[in-house]
Design goal:
Blueprint lengths: L5 H5 L2 E4 L6 E3 L1 H4 L6 H5 L5 E3 L5 E3 L9 H5 L6 E3 L7 E4 L3
Antiparallel strand pairs: 1-6, 2-5, 3-4
Bound molecules: iron/sulfur cluster (2 copies).
One iron/sulfur cluster (SF4) binds next to helix 4.
């Protein structure tokens, strides 16, 4: 199986970033989470664990796959929607 690096994946997409975040993470809830599955499942590496147990999240380079929302086991930790029309990720043809 051919492995694709994060950098190679990012070369195949472009983003039109909305000023309104389409995903919001409640880091207070994340501090109580011992699993932090979002850190491991996000294909864009957008969840970064902090020393205080919280999570640093940046929505701007999101692939809109929904994996974080499905993987998160804490109700209310992630508020997830698609970006507004005209914004978000575009997958380029190779
Ligand atoms: S899995 Fe959910 S609750 Fe746990 S750190 Fe990630 S977003 Fe927060
Ligand atoms: S929707 Fe996908 S790419 Fe976006 S933050 Fe969640 S897991 Fe990462």
């Amino acid at each position: 199986m051919v492995k694709t690096t994060h950098e190679e994946k990012m070369l195949t997409v472009r983003f039109r970033v909305d000023e309104h975040a389409h995903i919001v993470v409640n880091t207070d809830i994340c501090r109580e989470c011992s699993v932090q599955s979002c850190v491991y499942v996000c294909p864009a590496n957008l969840f970064v664990p902090l020393d205080d147990g919280g999570i640093l999240f940046n929505y701007e380079q999101c692939f809109e796959c929904g994996t974080c929302y499905i993987a998160c086991n804490r109700e209310g930790a992630i508020r997830w929607t698609y970006p507004r029309g005209g914004f978000g990720v575009t997958f380029r043809e190779s």
